[in-house]
Amino acid sequence: MSIAHPSPSSRPPRLMGILNITPDSFSDGGRYLEREAAVARALRMLEEGADILDIGGESTRPGSAPVPPEEQERRILDVVRQLRDRIPAGIPLSIDTTWARVARAALAAGADWINDTSAGLDDPDMLPLAAELQAPIVLMHRRGTPQTMQRAPEYLDVVAEVRDHLAARAEAALAAGVRECDILLDPGIGIGFGKDQEHNLTLLAGLGRLVELGFPVLLGTSRKRFLGALCGDVAADERVAATCATTALGVMQGVELFRVHDVAANRQAADVAWAISCRSTGD
């Protein structure tokens, strides 16, 4: 398994801080259900170097139950409004949802981006909404649903299949009227998105092949179970160093955006890897 090495991105890596306003997320479920706690956490991530904040009201961990859109809105909208009033306009707020209704409400409340783990497949109104409001949208590869996606996932060539799926979803977004500059791609790394341990490692080694599609790539490995398995089954909040290793690897392969819980540590990893990658190409 060789690592793909395209030219590093010409833009410095950006960090997307994770804010889960959920009772059941695998790593931090229940910690930020109260608005004040959620806002304080978001502000702390900005102080630590986050460039974007990603706010979600539904867990995507394996086996999690769908959260109705009205409940997602109840969880997130006040937090979005509070943050939009308190942070600089240049800091994007992203809404993590597969429901166009939730995305529209969040964008009206002050969010800027959409992060759709179904890549617009769960709700046919999502891509037209992103086009209508000219909102950047992250399109993620996912096989199945949280209830089904870990039933013995199989691929003949996981990198090629994920790449082809993401290319097709990008084409669908363009056909719906989404601007090319507003499309980002996420390979959906993790046991919870229809990949096993070997699939995840192969995708990490092949990130450069996804970068070659020409759209910014987002990498989300933060604290994930497959990292814990590699490190002796350590608990989720003890997987910071492992996450930083994947962040550095991603920077060296041209990944531009990293979705993380632990911003300060990953900021250091990203910045060091970026400084090295610039010198390795003569920039």
From TrEMBL:
Its EC number is 2.5.1.15. CDD domains: DHPS. Coiled coil: none annotated. The gene is folP. It comes from Allochromatium humboldtianum. SUPFAM superfamilies: Dihydropteroate synthetase-like (SSF51717). The keyword Transferase applies. Residues 13-271 form the Pterin-binding domain. It comes from the Bacteria. It holds the Pfam family Pterin_bind. Gene3D superfamilies: Dihydropteroate synthase-like. Keywords: Folate biosynthesis, Magnesium, Metal-binding, Transferase. The keyword Magnesium applies. One of its GO terms (cellular component) is cytosol. Pathway: Cofactor biosynthesis; tetrahydrofolate biosynthesis; 7,8-dihydrofolate from 2-amino-4-hydroxy-6-hydroxymethyl-7,8-dihydropteridine diphosphate and 4-aminobenzoate: step 1/2. PANTHER family: FOLATE SYNTHESIS PROTEINS (PTHR20941), FOLIC ACID SYNTHESIS PROTEIN FOL1 (PTHR20941:SF1). GO terms for biological process: folic acid biosynthetic process; tetrahydrofolate biosynthetic process. This is Dihydropteroate synthase.
